[in-house]
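Annotators were shown the component list below and the corresponding predicted structure, then asked to write short factual statements about the assembly.
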Amino acid sequence: MKSSQTTDHLPGKIQRVGAIGGGQLALMMGDSARNLGIELIVQTPSAADPAVAVAAGNVLAAIDDVGATAKLAELCDVITFENEFVNLEGLAKLAEKGVLFRPSLAALTPLLDKYVQRCYLQDLGLPTPKFWAWEASAPLPEGAMNFPLVIKTRRHGYDGQGTFIVKDAASFESIRAKLKGQPLLLEEFVPFDRELAAIAARSNAGEIAIYPIVETQQEDRVCRLVIAPADISLDVKAQAESIARKLLDSLKVVGIFGIELFLTADGEVLVNEIAPRTHNSGHFSIDACKTSQFEQHLRAVCQLPLGNCDLNCQGAVMVNLLGYESAESDYLMQRQKLAQLEGAFVHWYGKKESRPGRKLGHVTVVLGDKSGTNRRAQAESISRNIDAIWKAN
Ligand code: ADP
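Structure shown to annotators:
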């Protein structure tokens, strides 16, 4: 790789993309890469990881193994990210030698630590819950004394791991004991009316494309259901889109970001968290939009024109297939039944082992013309049907 962060590339010249991470997000990016005639090469620890099966090549190594990323760079024109467990300091040495990262390391720097991310958003004037940096052996800061209270580990949290919603003094003491010694983020609990997400891409030229804002529903802090588009007012939509624009422009992002939002009862939109990559709440776009989030990310990274984010249907409901047992199974029977549901597209990540809460696949149900307007009620009924099939042994 001979490029540098500042060099402008000619369109069509970036054809080999390295992805740090080989999970389901890289797997789905691999499908889009093939359609675009792009080679995707993944750096991932195990040959059994989902994306290895579809990638044009792989470097089998830990995500934060910078030596392995140097090898990946030899095989690619640009490197992108599937998750945020990266070793920024190590990667900076590669960037100095001319390795091109998209999004850039500078765009990732304020985002990987949840406290630093909150400070960045606050400095940008974007609305967030009240927050404090904290360490569990210190007294609680003034203003953070009331329950419920939210405690988050500052790095390496995902799918609700590392996020604790503390309801009372007794559970506070046990969580505090567990987290001693780790840098933490304390947050006010937001009694949100709904959770929303904005999936937005920015090109190297500064063009921004935003997908329809979606509603997300979490169970035990893990995404269970996504409703596209969210049933929100024009004002709320405008707030969410304006947050996405401001953030992507200020970080000069090249690529796609998932922005998790809280909508309060009085119609205010607050930022919960930024994921500097494709995001679970954008999976509906594979079957329900003119351009999927995975293709869009590759388009941005490879300097192709951004695609159209519009829905190609009335709406969609995406339901995650979360593990509910520890087992080795491909759940073939369940998948075949799920595929028979009207409008259903089943996506299976090919993971060999199931564990409770593990994301094993998802189903998107596209809504047709006759589907009516109450998407939340439809989503409930669709997810009940899917759960009944998925969990039937
Ligand atoms: P992760 O990074 O592991 O996904 P998040 O910070 O996104 O963790 O939190 C997971 C879920 O926990 C959120 O989707 C939301 O349902 C809940 N949550 C997180 N922070 C708050 C908060 N400040 N107030 C209320 N609920 C919260």
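Statements collected:
1. The chain has three domains: 16-108, 130-188, 194-390.
2. Residues 130-188 form a domain with the Dna Ligase; domain 1 fold (CATH 3.30.1490.20).
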